[in-house]
Amino acid sequence: AQRVTQPEKLLSVFKGAPVELKCNYSYSGSPELFWYVQYSRQRLQLLLRHISRESIKGFTADLNKGETSFHLKKPFAQEEDSAMYYCAPNPTQGGSEKLVFGKGTKLTVNP
Amino acid sequence: KAGVTQTPRYLIKTRGQQVTLSCSPISGHRSVSWYQQTPGQGLQFLFEYFSETQRNKGNFPGRFSGRQFSNSRSEMNVSTLELGDSALYLCASGLAGGGTDTQYFGPGTRLTVL
User: CA dist B31 to A1, B3, B94, Å?
Assistant: First the structure.
């Protein structure tokens, strides 16, 4: 069965500190991997996806196939990064699988 | 392009009633997915429609149903409402749907069941 785990419900860091939001998944096959973010009073939106290999707002995410993880990282957190972050490893079988989001990690960046 | 819109934004119903929520996807998007968001369970997938056909379904009871129209607009219906159905219902659209597609989310409909 498909499973995605974000082990930290809450994560608090100080401005300028590195931050890592963890995501572990259990999937058959090779999923496409996404991180979505929801800022306060805004709608949920895509932050980044693995296939693009982009760095968005200073965030990167490395796929570790051996550990089946897709942790989100940023070397220097900013207060505006405070938000809810959702990991979403999604199947690539072309519409035959359910879409699954992790339960999310609430990041708070303190001044 | 205009974003995903959902109506109504807020709803208050009583137990036993039924409710219909509406979602208009981004122009050109043919996939519409519905999610239930609660503080305890996070985002839970309800179902996905593509070209008027339900393509995927989550683990929700049959009281939850949906449909998609030829213009890709979608509606979700919940019958015989229960207190536990109180949640934010999110709709997301995508070009092709499925696991490789980026989801574009609407603002949600906040449903409160009394």
Answer: 24, 14, 5
Tell me the C-alpha to C-alpha distance, in Å, between residue A71 and each of A34, A61, A88, A107: 10, 6, 11, 14
Region A66-82 average pLDDT: 92
Q: Is B25 on the interface with A (CB under 8 A)?
A: no
Asked if B99 is an interface residue toward chain A (Cβ–Cβ < 8 A), one would say: yes
Q: Does the beta carbon of B5 lie under 8 angstroms from any beta carbon of chain A?
A: no
β partners of residue A71:
A62
Angstrom distance (rounded) from CA B90 to CA B111? 11
The residue in chain A having the minimum alpha-carbon distance to the alpha carbon of residue B4 is A43
Tell me the residue ranges of DSSP E strands in chain A.
Answer: 3-5, 10-14, 19-21, 24-26, 32-38, 45-49, 60-64, 69-74, 83-90, 105-110
Contacts of A32 in chain B (CB under 8 A): 99-100
User: Is A92 an interface residue toward B (CB < 8 Å)?
Assistant: yes
Asked if the model's pLDDT at residue A16 lies above 90, the reply is: yes
Place of tokens 């149903």: B65
Mean pLDDT of chain B: 93
Instruction: Please check whether residue B55 is in contact with residue B48, taking contact to mean a CB–CB distance below 8 angstroms.
Output: yes
Do the Cβ atoms of A95 and B97 come within 8 Å?
Answer: yes
